[in-house]
Specification:
Layout (H helix, E strand, L loop, with lengths): L1 H37 L13 H16 L3 E8 L4 E8 L3 H11 L10 H8 L4 E4 L16 E9 L2 E9 L8 H4 L2 H79 L5 H37 L8 E4 H15 L5 E4 L7 E4 L1 H17 L7 E8 L2 E8 L6 H4 L27 H11 L3 E7 L3 E9 L2
Parallel strand pairs: 7-9
Antiparallel strand pairs: 1-2, 1-5, 3-4, 4-5, 6-8, 9-10, 10-12, 11-12
The chain binds adenosine-5'-diphosphate (ADP).
């Protein structure tokens, strides 16, 4: 009776100790990963917050203390043939650790234990091994600890690693007495925690890597935008000079043409020069619009896009922009409908609102057949003034409609109807329109049915 009670007492005591140990380990585990999360970056600027080796080492040290044993090792098993990779050990001299690394690294689990032992591990069962017998496959250094306990590390039912521990040989003479069921259960629990540590560190590393990638991307974008801004600024001066010279040559040639006898060789020669000059100036206009879009884009990115707001007449803006478009788009029918009232006073940057309407009109012109009309409608609804531009082009698929406002976005498959109409085409026009209207606290959008055309609109507060 006395012996039974004492045995029971010892068992309860060991169970309690096991639970306390597990608790200690859980607390330590939280510290390891918290340290990882908040650890200052060491070395390379974007180094992951904690290395797997460091976490596995700390974990092994804590586990060794908790288990009160001679040696603890944590190994990953790498696919495809479950090659062992030492993650961290505790209790070994540097020499023994080097031997262990040499003996285990890149060694498939099948070279370490036999198939039935591997099956046990896959079944989430703990193994006890005598390093001098089967299922241990090869004779290796035992660093003074012959009896091993190997617990599986499982993730989603898959064996991803092993947790091993060893006690000193002096205390035990055979494998059976080496590890109690409680110790085996405790080792299994600890192996689970080891899996969690590894998983957490892996996630932390992934997060750190994606943060570093994001930073790199941001930096690259910033440099790219800086370069764009500098290039657009730098290009302006030489382009203005070239334009001035082209215009001057054009004026001189037309003056010479006036004085040249018609049908003479000189007159024909001058005509031959006039044509390419006209084309050069046309293309020049396109280049100017690209540069101006890029400059506006850079200003928006740098928060330097300044509006000059004042009271202005929206009807007048529409009339002016439509007139200019009629002149430039020669031959296209552009209909303008204005409300009955003469003036529509809005508080806005007149030039920028003109740019928006101009861009809508240019797009309608670029993306709809030349023989189809474009309708511009200005109306007043309550306290809102509304401007819309309707074309009879190819229209835009519903899933593309939200993307067309993004910078540099161009709908795949939608091409300008005629190459001579190719304008800036950087995919910046609608992005700039959106920025301008938002800065005026207005709204904008598109209604479009593929095959039937599109209506681009914006509204602004009107007083
Ligand atoms: P882009 O300079 O390419 O015209 P925008 O930002 O003005 O750039 O327009 C973005 C894209 O939206 C265009 O590339 C085109 O694919 C599509 N788009 C714009 N307006 C129309 C329209 N009226 N009809 C059909 N597609 C259009």
């Amino acid at each position: 009776m006395f012996r039974d009670a004492a045995e029971q007492y010892h068992q309860d005591h060991r169970t309690l100790q096991a639970f306390t140990s597990l608790l200690t380990l859980v607390e330590a585990l939280a510290t390891i990963t918290e340290q990882g999360e908040h650890a200052p970056h060491i070395g390379a600027e974007n180094a992951p917050p904690i290395t797997l080796a460091a976490a596995a080492k700390s974990f092994a040290e804590i586990a060794q203390q908790v288990l009160d044993c001679k040696y603890v090792g944590v190994f990953a098993l790498d696919p495809p043939d479950e090659c062992q990779r030492m993650l961290g050990t505790s209790g070994l001299s540097p020499e023994d650790e080097a031997i262990l690394v040499r003996d285990t690294n890149q060694t498939p689990l099948a070279d370490y234990v036999n198939a039935s032992a591997i099956a046990q591990l896959h079944n989430d069962q703990v193994l006890t091994l005598d390093l001098k017998r089967q299922p241990f496959m090869t004779t290796r250094s035992t660093h003074g600890a012959r009896f091993r306990l190997v617990a599986p590390m499982m993730r989603s039912g898959q064996l991803i690693g092993i947790f091993t521990m060893a006690k000193t040989d002096e205390e035990y003479h055979d494998l059976q007495s080496a590890y109690t069921p409680q110790e085996m259960a405790l080792a299994k629990g600890i192996a689970r925690l080891a899996t969690q540590v590894i998983e957490k560190v892996r996630l932390l590393q992934e997060r750190a890597e994606s943060k570093a990638n994001e930073q790199k991307l941001q930096e690259a974008t910033r440099r790219y935008e800086d370069c764009l801004s500098t290039a657009s600024h730098e290009l302006r001066t030489p382009l203005t000079t070239i334009k001035g010279n082209l215009q001057l040559s054009q004026r001189r040639i037309s003056a010479l043409s006036k004085h040249a006898e018609p049908s003479t060789e000189t007159a024909q020669g001058l005509q031959r020069i006039e044509q390419p000059l006209r084309e050069a100036l046309q293309n020049f206009g396109r280049l100017e619009r690209m540069i101006s879009e890029l400059l506006d884009y850079s200003r928006i990115q740098a928060d330097k896009f300044i509006l000059r707001k004042q009271d202005c007449d929206l009807a007048e803006i529409a009339r002016h922009v439509v007139e200019e478009a009629r002149k430039a788009d020669g031959g296209r029918t552009i209909l303008l409908t204005l409300p009955a009232q003469e003036e529509i006073t809005i508080y806005a940057d007149k030039d920028r609102i003109s740019d928006v309407l101009h861009n809508y009109l240019t797009n309608a012109h670029k993306y709809s057949p030349l023989d189809r009309p474009i309708e511009v409608n200005v109306s007043v609804e309550g306290t809102l003034a509304r401007v819309s531009v309707r074309d009879e082009g190819a229209g835009i698929e519903p899933e593309e409609q939200e993307h067309i406002w993004e910078r540099f976005y161009r709908v795949p498959g939608i091409e300008v109807v005629e190459q001579s109409l190719a304008d800036s085409n950087l995919g910046l026009g609608l992005y700039l329109c959106q920025e301008i209207i938002e800065l005026h606290h207005g709204q904008l959008g598109v209604q479009s049915t593929p095959g039937q055309g599109s209506t681009f609109w914006f509204t602004l507060g009107y007083s």
